[in-house]
Amino acid sequence: QVQLVESGGGLVQPGGSLRLSCAVSGRTVSTLAMAWFRQPPGKEREFVAAMKRVGGTSYAADVVKGRFTISRDNGKNTAYLRMSNLDPEDTANYYCAAGTGSPITSSLGLRSTYDYWGQGTQVIVSS
Length: 127
Hints:
- The protein is an all-beta fold and 127 residues long.
- Helix content is 0%, strand content 46%.
- The strands form 2 sheets. Strands 2, 4, 5, 6, 9, 10 and 11 form a 7-stranded mixed beta sheet that branches.
- The chain is globular and about 40 Å long.
- It starts with a strand and ends with a strand.
């Protein structure tokens, strides 16, 4: 059974940076498609970024492209979301997700693509 545990959230000022971590257990992170989603207060959960398990190609939603980067460390069996130039609109609970398949690019942003989810970590961007 795959388990995901997020960490690294917190309060940050606008323009600041944070790195979220997703510790993976039960399976090697390089054998999983990994993704980050977020759920702003009162809104639906939305796709942020994903990385394919084969080749490690990464993708990001247009709203965060150029500011957020997904990565993984196979040695630490952990995925990361590096966030920079944060805006109050980035305030949300951030969730790590993992999938055991090999999704096509167009399905990386779908919640149904992923088999496992973490409990989330809260990010608040405020001065």
